Amino acid sequence: MPTIRALQLLADREAALVEREAPAPPGPDEVQLRVRAVGLNHIDVWGFRGMAFAKRQYPLTVGAEAAAEVIATGPGVTGLTVGDRVVPYSALTCGVCKSCRQGRDNLCEAVAGVRGFHVDGFAQDIVNHPARLVVKVPAGVDLRDAVCVPVAYATVEHMLFDNARLEPGEWVLVHAGGSGIGSIAIRIAKSIGCTVITTVGSADKAAKASALGADHVINYREDRFEGVVRKLTGKKGVDVVFEHTGADTWNGSLLSMKRGGRLVTCGATSGPSGSINLMQLFQQQYRIIGSFGAPLSALHRALERIAGGVRPVIDTVYGLAEFRAGLERLAQRDVFGKIIVEL
Ligand SMILES: [Zn+2]
Q1: What are phi and psi of 149, to 5 degrees?
Q2: Fewest Cβ atoms closer than 10 Å to its Cβ: which of 156, 163, 194, 307?
Q3: Cα dist. 10→36, 116, 197, 218, 269 in Å?
C-alpha cells in the first residue's frame, strides 16, 4: 500500500507528521496534485490553536495555500494535463449557486469548507482537488512565488481593486508593512503609481519597508500613525486604508482617511472589536468594506501580476517537519513577508 506524508492536527495545538494511505486515483472532474509547497497564513495560526465555533474533526491535514503539479487527471477533465503547474483554490465552493455563477466564489452560498481549516488541506505529498478549482501558473513564475497567491496575494488583489477600487496616483495607508499581505500590498500599490504610507513595529522592518518602495514608513511604537498621516497628506488624509490589524489601529485608521475615503479590511489580528463615530461615518462619506478571501478571477490576475514582476516578499522557506516553527514565527509577527513550507 503506497503511503504519503501528511502534516496533521491531532488535537488543538498538537501537530504531527504522519504516514497515510495515498489518495485513490482522481474521480470525475478531479485532478491529482503533487504538492510542492504550502504558504502559511494567520488562518493556519487560528486553525492550530483551535476555534470552538469551527465545525471540523481531527485528525485534520493542515495547509490552506499551496502550489502543485498535476500528476493525474480524472474522467471529464479538460484544459489541464499532467505536468501543469497550478495553484488550488482553498475553499470547496459549490460551483452552481448564484454567487459562484457570477464569479463571486468567495460568497458561495453552499461552500463545503476551507481546506486546511475545516476539511483536509494541502500539507501532504499528494491530494485530489476539483479541476474547476485550480488555476494554471504562467511560465516564468516560480512556484515559491505562486504559492503565495491563493490566500495572501489574491486577498490583497481583491481588497485593493475589486473592493477599494484603488487607482494610480492615489494615497494608500498599508498597515503592518512587514506582514505577508502588507508587503504584497506595498509592492502592488507602488507598481501602479500610488503613494504608499506604511506602519511597522521596528527600525529593522522600517528599513525593509523603505527598500520595498514605501514612500513613508511610520514606526507605530514611536509615533501615533494617524497624526503622521494627517501631516504627510496636508491634513487631508489618504484615499484608501488597507486594514487587517483591527482593534489597535481601527480608530486611527478612520482618522487617517480623507472625505470619501475607502477602508478595506480582511483581518483583526490585534483584536476583533472597534467603535465608530456614526457622525464621522456619514459626514465624511467613508466607505468601509469587509473582505475575505478572493474570487478565482483574483488568483488569475495575481499570477499575471507576478509574471509581470510584482513578486511577493518571501521571509523564510521551511521544510515540512518545520511547519510548527514557521507557525510560531508567524504568530509572533517575527516576519517580513511570507513564510513558505516546501514538501
Ligand atoms: Zn456556490
Answers
A1: -80, -50
A2: 307
A3: 23, 13, 42, 41, 25
Q: How far is the CA of 334 from the centre of ligand 1 (A)?
A: 37
Q: pLDDT tens-digit profile of 89-123?
A: 999 999 999 999 999 999 999 999 999 999 999 99
255 CA from centroid of ligand 1 (Å): 37
d(CA 279, CA 18): 56
CB atoms within 5 A of ion ligand 1 belong to 93-94, 97, 100, 108
Low-confidence ranges of the chain (pLDDT < 50): none
Whole-angstrom distance, CA of residue 152 vs CA of residue 158: 10
Query: For residue 312, how many C-alpha atoms fall within 13 Å in the half-sphere facing its CB?
Result: 33
- Cα 298 to Cα 98: distance, rounded to the nearest angstrom: 18
Return the residue matching grid coordinates 513550507.
341
CB atoms within 10 A of CB 5: 17
Q: What is the pTM of this model?
A: 0.96
